[in-house]
Every structure is written in C-alpha cells, then in structure tokens.
Amino acid sequence: MLWIICFFCMFVHAERGRADLREGDIIFQTSKSSQSKFIAYATNSINTHCGIIVYQNDRPYVLEASNVVKLTPLNNFINKGALGARYSVYRYTDKPIKIRYKKYMGISYDSQFSLTNKKFYCSELVWVIYKEQFGVELCKPRPLSSYNTLGLGKIMKRRGISSKSLFVAPSDLAASKKLHCIKE
C-alpha cells in the first residue's frame, strides 16, 4: 500500500512540474541518437537535444528538429531521452509568448549543422525562432573549431562539416545569460 501512495505522489509531483511549463520554454535532454555521444563529447555537456514547448488545443508539445521539424507530445519527448525522464527547462521571459511554428513544420534535419542552409538542427531551430520572432539572440554562434572536435575529423568530413562553420549547440543555449532555469 505504501508503494502505491509513493508512486501516486511522484506522479502528481511530476505532472505538477510539467503543468508549470509555458509556451516558449526551452527543454533539454540527452538524446539516444547516434550523434548524441559526439555532441556530448564536443560540448562537454549532457544537453545534446532540445526543443521549444508549444501548446496545441491546451496540450503541451515540443517543437523539435529530429528527422524533420515536428511536434512531439511533451511526455513522449521526455520519455525518449537517454537518461530516462531526466530533462531540464529554461525560460526567456515570464511574460506569456506565442511561438509561430507552422512555417517550420516538415523542414528536413540539418546533418551538416549549417546556419546558412534551409534545414534545421535542434538548437539552431530554437535559436532562429527566438531571433526571428522576438529579436533575441540567445547566444552567439561559435565556430565549430571552438568545440572539442579532436578525433571527429572523419565524421565531420563525411557530413561536409567545416571547422570554420558557425554553430549553436544545445549547451550554448543552456548557458545563455538571457535564460533562467526553471527545472533542472
């Protein structure tokens, strides 16, 4: 009986924490994708994937760039992380905001991590939306050479990634002084 009560309390606490999420909040996790270990290595961070919370019909979703830009139900996004249900959430403003996301839907994933093509990787999508819709540059893009790319040369070459390319990593967004953490 005690374990049922404990489980119920944990469930209620988790759901209450999720209910505090607002549109525009940025959610981070460790992805199970094959490139996640390389992103973690290059950035020295467990934040290897991110998206933006949006609401549709009063239900929370995560706008994410995965194989394409898509909406993923919040619980599905949280549960697909490599570290179980471990995630963190950062917020730009406490004022209500609305994300206009329809024009991004279905756009292909950017495996070259380029800020100059018409495709998106996860943190680029978040960065572009804040820059275009709110005039806020959450962080400065950095040359890929400023990350730990030692030993990643073959992968970069195979994908056509230049070490001079500018990049915005999930860890760069999480370190932004313009965001405050609301859930670690």
Kindly list the characteristics that best describe this protein.
184 residues; alpha+beta; endopeptidase fold (from Nostoc punctiforme); 6-stranded antiparallel sheet; two-stranded antiparallel sheet; 20% strand; globular; disordered N terminus
Q: Can you give me a brief rundown of this structure?
A:
With 184 residues, the protein is an alpha+beta fold. The protein has helices spanning 2-19, 36-43, 74-79, 122-134, 153-159, 170-174; strands at 26-29, 49-56, 59-65, 69-73, 88-91, 142-143, 166-167, 180-183.
Low-pLDDT residue spans? 1-17
Shape: globular
According to CATH, the fold-level topology is endopeptidase fold (from Nostoc punctiforme)
Oligomeric state as shown:
single chain
Percent of residues in helices comes to: 25-40%
Averaging pLDDT over every residue, what do you get?
A: 89
What gyration radius follows from the Cα positions, in whole Å?
A: 17 Å
| Lateral arrangement of strands in the main beta sheet | 4-3-2-1-5-8
In total, the number of strands is 8
Query: Biggest β-sheet: count, sense, barrel?
Result: 6 strands, antiparallel
Tally of discrete structural domains? 1
State the helix count: 6
Q: What class, by secondary structure content?
A: alpha+beta
Q: Regarding CATH, which class?
A: Alpha Beta
So, CATH architecture?
Alpha-Beta Complex
CATH homolog superfamily: endopeptidase domain like (from Nostoc punctiforme)
**H/E element string?**
HEHEEEHEHEHEHE
Spatial separation of the terminal alpha carbons: 30 Å
| SS strand fraction | 15-25%
